[in-house]
Amino acid sequence: MANSSVQLIDLPDELLLIIFKKLNNVELLYSLMCINKQLDRILYDSIVTRRLTLIRSSSNRHFFSLRDEMLDRFCLEILPKIHRKIEWLTVESLSMERIFLVDDYSNLCQLDFVSIQWEGLERLFDEENFARCHYYSYPYTMKNYDKISNNFPGGLFKCVRQISLFDEHPFQHDFFIKISQAFPFLQKLTLENSQPQN
Which of 142, 151, 17 is nearest to 88 (CA)? Predict the structure, then answer.
């Protein structure tokens, strides 16, 4: 039998996407973006670009900025191409300003900060938007959770007994399922619904 070799780019797009889903999307984008048009087309898929964690972590749960060359490539080449596809972004204090200066992230629904200084946050948000930010460490031990909006990521909050929901867009049925699963011991729910559904 003759020797044959199959290269990564010889695989069908569907198979590549299945493989890529199992890998770290930040490493994928850094390693494969701009190699060829086929790979770029696959890497632009929302499965790869929807959620980016632009930090490194150590085994003892310390967080660091991406390596300089990696951050440079993301800020100069990768983020300008995919910024509109990003819905969830995780950053840390040393690199966040560079990342946010790339462009607006018009579809960003969730922004996670790690190793952040309050002074850094104040520079990024105006007073109105800062008031809507939720910041907590896990496990969340408070009894109240206020102003939850449609982009609530979920989780399990066993200590919370009272929540308030803030309607930026009309709530959907799936949202209430997520709320019921996240707050199993909920006793009081307050809803501010500014846009009723038709």
Answer: 151
Pairing of strands 56-57, 63-64: antiparallel
- For 13-59, how does the pLDDT look when each residue is reduced to its tens digit (9 = 90+)? 899 889 998 999 999 999 999 888 988 998 998 889 999 999 888 88
Query: What is the pairing mode between strands 51-53 and 110-114?
Result: unpaired
Cis amide leading into 139 (omega within 30): yes
Instruction: Report the amino acid identity of residue 74.
Output: F
Residue with tokens 């946010």: 100
Domains of the chain by residue range: 1-133, 134-198
Is residue 59 packed enough to be buried (19+ CB in 10 Å), middle (13-18) or exposed (0-12)? exposed
> pLDDT tens digits for 128-142?
554 455 555 556 677
